[in-house]
UniProtKB/TrEMBL annotation:
<dbReference type="InterPro" id="IPR001647">
    <property type="entry name" value="HTH_TetR"/>
</dbReference>
<dbReference type="InterPro" id="IPR050109">
    <property type="entry name" value="HTH-type_TetR-like_transc_reg"/>
</dbReference>
<protein>
    <submittedName>
        <fullName>TetR family transcriptional regulator</fullName>
    </submittedName>
</protein>
<dbReference type="InterPro" id="IPR036271">
    <property type="entry name" value="Tet_transcr_reg_TetR-rel_C_sf"/>
</dbReference>
<dbReference type="InterPro" id="IPR009057">
    <property type="entry name" value="Homeodomain-like_sf"/>
</dbReference>
<feature type="domain" description="HTH tetR-type">
    <location>
        <begin position="31"/>
        <end position="90"/>
    </location>
</feature>
<dbReference type="GO" id="GO:0003700">
    <property type="term" value="F:DNA-binding transcription factor activity"/>
</dbReference>
<dbReference type="InterPro" id="IPR049445">
    <property type="entry name" value="TetR_SbtR-like_C"/>
</dbReference>
<keyword id="KW-0804">Transcription</keyword>
<dbReference type="GO" id="GO:0000976">
    <property type="term" value="F:transcription cis-regulatory region binding"/>
</dbReference>
<dbReference type="Pfam" id="PF21597">
    <property type="entry name" value="TetR_C_43"/>
</dbReference>
<feature type="region of interest" description="Disordered">
    <location>
        <begin position="1"/>
        <end position="25"/>
    </location>
</feature>
<keyword id="KW-0805">Transcription regulation</keyword>
<keyword id="KW-0238">DNA-binding</keyword>
<feature type="DNA-binding region" description="H-T-H motif">
    <location>
        <begin position="53"/>
        <end position="72"/>
    </location>
</feature>
<dbReference type="Pfam" id="PF00440">
    <property type="entry name" value="TetR_N"/>
</dbReference>
Length: 253
């Protein structure tokens, strides 16, 4: 998934749902245009990434680009709307799998299959994919990459572990324009997917080293964008079968 050309700006004139904040209902034609724009944006960003221009969205929606900008005064607003919807969609899919599947592995695999089939993974916001990434211990990474004269002692807060310190660094590296609403949606998704992962791992059906980030990465990469819908569905199903086999725990010989 390509994240380019978007700053996730919070300084916008409209609300995150693309409205101006007024209580006046949209006219029928305006509501229809909004639905066309949102559907087109999901398709275009899913195929080309969030770097795709607004003109591409307008062409796919068969409206003028001015119509798009009347609903979404900046590309950032439209990107946030789509990313929020996809995060909420994945969260609901995870909750459904958790609530309707008694077997831990069945719940996790159902969530993955449903999410990949919906194509939601191609539209995950970047802050979701960053969470939980594991790296080498800081001292090893610094020693390997930074010349002696440029090394600076790492300032570590009392009582903070290396893993926690890394999480703090991740937070610091997130775009400063990401607001609390974005973080709340990401946190809800991470929490429920974490429960699916914990259940499958505790049952001995999921590899012990698999993390929530790994599961989200599967969703983000197992839905290739192909011009033929039937080919895309077949390719996604095949790729997911292979990835699921890689996630499963194997008994020791």
């Amino acid at each position: 998934m390509h994240i380019q050309g978007s700053h996730w700006s919070a300084a916008v004139a409209t609300t995150a749902d693309g409205t101006s904040g007024r209580n006046t209902p949209l006219r029928v034609d305006a509501q229809r245009n909004l639905e066309h724009v949102l559907r087109a944006a999901r398709e275009v960003f899913g195929e080309l990434g969030y770097g795709a221009p607004m003109e591409d969205v307008a062409r796919r929606a068969r409206v003028g680009v001015g119509t798009v900008y009347r609903r979404f005064p900046s590309k950032d607003v439209l990107v946030r709307r789509i990313a929020e919807e996809e995060t909420a969609r994945l969260t609901e899919q995870a909750r459904t799998a958790l609530g309707q599947e008694d077997e831990p592995w069945s719940a996790l695999s159902r969530f993955l299959r449903t999410s990949v089939a919906s194509g939601a993974g191609r539209l995950l916001p970047p802050q979701v994919l960053r969470v939980g990434v594991e790296v080498e211990p800081e001292e090893h990474r610094v020693q390997a990459q930074v010349p002696d004269r440029a090394r600076v002692p790492q300032q570590r807060q009392p009582g903070v572990t290396g893993g926690q310190l890394h999480e703090l660094r991740l937070v610091e590296q997130r775009p400063t324009m990401v607001d609390d609403r974005d973080d709340a949606g990401a946190a809800a998704l991470l929490e429920v997917v974490g429960r699916l992962v914990d259940r499958a791992r505790s049952a001995g059906e999921l590899r012990a080293d698999v993390t929530v980030a790994d599961v989200l990465l599967v969703i983000a990469t197992a839905a290739p964008s192909l011009p033929d819908a039937a080919q895309q569905a077949a390719a996604s199903s095949r790729l997911l079968d292979i990835l699921l086999e890689g996630l499963r725990s194997r008994p020791l010989a």
